[in-house]
Amino acid sequence: MSKKIALTIICLAFAAACSRGISSEKYIEVMTELGCKGINESQPAAAEVFKEKKVTLEQLKDYRKKGDAKDMMKVSMEIANRVMACHGMGAGQ
To answer: What's the whole-number mean pLDDT along residues 30-46?
Structure first.
């Protein structure tokens, strides 16, 4: 009986973790990783990055849906700068 309860608690904790939104920093981190590896989020290889970063594609989509245009512009610029840096390109080059 206690094993069933423990399993239920683990499943509920996992479901709660997956349903939470993600922070801007987490979104930037994931999108930068994909960009540095040259992976599109819809490619099968992206699933490994999502697993490593503990996010889902749905969380990324929800983040975009809920994002303020002004904030999303800042986030996009940060991702672009980080991806350029990992490819050896800096601002002004």
So the answer is: 95
